[in-house]
From TrEMBL:
Keyword Nucleus: no
PANTHER family: DUAL SPECIFICITY MITOGEN-ACTIVATED PROTEIN KINASE KINASE 5 (PTHR48013:SF9), DUAL SPECIFICITY MITOGEN-ACTIVATED PROTEIN KINASE KINASE 5-RELATED (PTHR48013)
Protein name as annotated: mitogen-activated protein kinase kinase
Chain residues that bind ATP: K94
Length: 345
């Protein structure tokens, strides 16, 4: 039996994207950007008094290439970074037009800088540094040459389980590392998962990330159709990311989102409340994989399994013999020719 949700229970304050948490002091002059403990200059990044990069990254050290991604407030290009010692690396160069923008834009930038600096994970995109140029702030990030999981899903449609397993395992490693540092991603979706030809899978775009549990009055940030239902009705924590993980894995397996018709936050709650989990999982796949998805998509967050527990699933350890990062990357490398085949069709 399905249950109707009381629309009056929605947290209307949370839907306001200009909530109090975004109204923080901001200062900018011709040489520095200062906001929420972050200072960025022409060749340095300083976070809460600690200088994280100085002199290595500046406009003259980068050669920009083609656009590889666009967001609401940013643009990402592939680039070549020449270090002081002459070494050249391929990087992703993310450009923010935030100086004259809203407090929301500045907060997104600062959240991403703080999250990437704090986590220092091999399963989350690495931040090399940032600098200020006129009205733009540029972040220099690790480059993943196969692009997003979203593009891979569109090309392969329903993936083979042998491909899903190493991808899902590494996403969980990224979530585990974020959660252990008290960070919630809050916008996990296929477009924010990147792949490389080395078999690496890493989380990116931490502009929505948050430190600690969020209260009922916290701002709702993220993509509606990947958002956990409790995000709009009560306090939420790291297990809201697990809901998003379950949807990402579902999409990898089936080639489609289970709630593809969701266009708004109200749609999200109504659709989830009226959905039957057994019906959603009626597609054919290994029972262990279904269990992982089911353990992630409980409407009650307390019934979901955290990342460190899901990583111990027999479906990873026994069915696919993935017990660590090395095994996961080895297996994904084996599957990469299949991805390339679909891209060339």
């Amino acid at each position: 039996m399905t249950r109707r949700i009381d629309i009056l229970s929605l947290n209307i304050d949370a839907i306001n994207t200009e909530a109090e948490e975004l109204n923080c002091s901001f200062h900018s002059d011709d040489e520095h950007f200062r906001y929420e403990g972050v200072t960025i200059g022409a060749d340095f990044l300083r976070l809460e008094g600690e200088t994280l990069s100085r002199g290595e990254i500046a406009p003259g050290s980068l050669q920009l290439g083609h656009i590889i991604g666009k967001g609401a407030f940013s643009e990402v290009r592939v680039g070549l970074w020449t270090r002081k010692n002459g070494d050249v690396s391929t990087v992703a160069v993310k450009d923010f037009r935030v100086i004259s923008g809203s407090s929301e834009r500045r907060s997104m930038l600062v959240r991403e800088l703080k999250a990437l600096t704090k986590v220092q994970s091999d399963h989350v995109i690495r931040l090399y540094g940032a600098y200020l140029e006129e009205t733009h702030i540029t972040m220099v990030l690790e480059y993943m040459n196969l692009g997003s999981l979203d593009a891979t899903i569109q090309q392969t449609k329903a993936m083979k389980e042998a491909m899903v397993a190493p991808i899902a395992y590494q996403i969980l490693l990224g979530l585990r590392d974020l959660h252990e540092k008290g960070i919630m991603h809050r916008d996990l979706k296929p477009a924010n998962v990147l792949l490389s030809s080395d078999g690496e899978v890493k989380l990116c775009d931490a502009g929505m990330a948050s430190l600690g549990e969020q209260t009922l009055n916290s701002t709702v940030l993220g993509t509606a159709k990947y958002m956990a239902p409790e995000r709009l009705t009560k306090s939420y924590g790291r297990l809201s990311d697990i809901w998003s993980f379950g949807l990402v894995v579902y999409e990898c397996v089936t080639g489609k989102h289970p709630f593809s018709k969701i266009d708004s936050l109200v749609d999200l709650l109504v659709t989830v409340e009226e959905s039957d989990l057994n019906e959603l999982l009626s597609f054919k796949c290994h029972s262990g994989l279904k269990e992982i998805i089911a353990c992630s998509l409980h409407a009650d967050p307390e019934q979901r399994m955290p990342a460190n527990i899901l990583l111990k699933s027999p479906w990873f350890l026994l069915t696919h013999e993935i017990e660590n990062t090395r095994k996961a990357r080895e297996q994904l490398r084996i599957m990469l020719p299949l991805i390339e085949k679909h891209r060339n069709l």
